[in-house]
Amino acid sequence: MLLTNSAAWIPEEQAQLEVGQAPWPKVGDDDLIISTHAVAVNPVDWKIQSWGGFGVKYPYILGEDVAGVVVEVGANFKHKFRTGQRVIGHASGLAHGHAYGAFQKYPLLRGSLTAVVPDEIPLSEAVVLPLSISTSAAGLYTKIGLHLRSPGDDTSSFADKKPTLLVWGGSSSVGSSVIQLAVASGYTVVTTASLSNFDYVRKLGATEVADYHEPDVTTKLIDFLGDTKLVGAYDAIGSEITVRQNAAVLHALGGGKIVSVGKAPEVPHNDVEIVRISSSIIDNQEPNVAKEIWGEYVPAALASGKLVPEPKPLVTGHGLSDVQEGLDKQKAGVSASKIVIELHPKKAVPATQPRSLAE
To answer: Residue 104 has what DSSP assignment?
Structure first.
């Protein structure tokens, strides 16, 4: 007897999403199956749909952010999760195939990229976090990235003067998590945002904020950072323009390293290193970081209130058929919010194996 699953498929490159049946996932030793209650939309989702590429094999199930209830637990994570628990997870379909895509009723999740959510936090709010946590951790803590101290490390050496991190794009989804993680790790944060989001990024923990719209934004950042111990820059926007602006700031202050979520252009500064990072680093290259951040910090910090789901969700739909509209709205642009689609799954019933777009 098999259970039914369905998904919002992208059947071919640059096609619109189609809701159809999907295979019931087969749980591996390192996996969970969850019943999806909410998904969030990230720029990578519409970029894959609009641009193609990314190594995707079609038909495919998009989606990186998912929240729901545990249905089945693989052997290696039975000590950590149980059925019925409320969780968020980074859906790693790009690395592991469409069974791990978020935009379906019953996705697979890597146990190492999943965390329990306290009852007092609605899943439609918590779902904004997963991809941003993985991407933030990849840039902040890996050897490929800035290799900073993590939240559980001893920061007694910071007693006299906390090191400072420059975060470009603090009000973005990734920037919001970078600020929270960096502050939790003992660092002072200087960031950029639009004037309307100054209070937002300060609430997250940023000490100084510069308006990226201003033509003298790099000069202001140099002034803010002049007397600090700068450990590098995290570019949460990742455009050629923003990376070059970060490089100008670091060069003026003696050089350093920039981690970028997007572009890594050449710059005319030999004392500046630019590294492009992605969330997959903590899954397949430096899993110790995933264990420390996802396995230890995230569940504890959510429970204590030290990690808050930001930016706020903007709920635009209530079913898989509404996911395409969510992609369209994210592509059009949002500020200090994240597109979320709620799903209200009914109890799965025994059925014959359905035909799916994957066949």
So the answer is: B
Q: Which residue has the higher pLDDT, 122 or 357?
A: 122
User: Which amino acid type is present at position 128?
Assistant: V
Angle, nearest 10°, between helix axes 323-332 and 43-51?
100
Residue 59: is the preceding peptide bond cis (ω within 30°)?
yes
Determine contact, residues 258/235, Cβ cutoff 8 Å: yes
The structure tokens 């635009």 sit at 316
Tokens of 269: 């500064």
The neighbour count for residue 94, using CB atoms within 10 Å, is 20
pLDDT at 268: 87
Q: Which residues are CB-neighbours of 243 under 8 A, at least 6 positions away?
A: 235, 258, 260, 262, 263, 264, 265, 267, 274
Alpha carbons 265 and 244: distance in angstroms, whole number: 8
Residue 152 has pLDDT above 90, yes or no: no
Most confident of 151-155, 211-215, 263-267: 211-215
Token couple for 272: 């500046």
Distance separating alpha carbons of residues 163 and 68, to the nearest angstrom: 37
- Among the listed residues 160, 146, 117, the one whose alpha carbon sits nearest the alpha carbon of residue 301: 117
Residue with tokens 């592991």: 96
pLDDT (tens digit, 9 = 90+) per residue, 158-194?
666 789 999 999 999 999 999 999 999 999 999 999 9
Question: Within the chain, what is the greatest distance between any pair of CA atoms?
Answer: 67
Q: Could you say which DSSP state residue 100 is in?
A: G
Helix residue ranges, H only, 185-314: 198-204, 217-225, 240-252, 281-284, 287-290, 298-304
Query: Please, what are the domains in the chain?
Result: 2-129+309-351 (3.90.180.10), 134-281 (3.40.50.720)
- CA 311 from centroid of its chain's CA atoms: 11
